[in-house]
Amino acid sequence: MNEFIKISVPKIVYHYTTKADAESIIADGKIYPADGCESWYSLTLDDLKTYIDLTVKNEGQAYIDFDGKIKTYGKFVPENYVILELKPRYSDHWYRYISLLSNSFPLEQRLMLAKMDTVKVCHRGIMEFKGKTRIIDMQEIM
Question: Among 18, 53, 62, 119, whose CB has the most other CB atoms within 10 angstroms?
Answer without folding.
Answer: 119
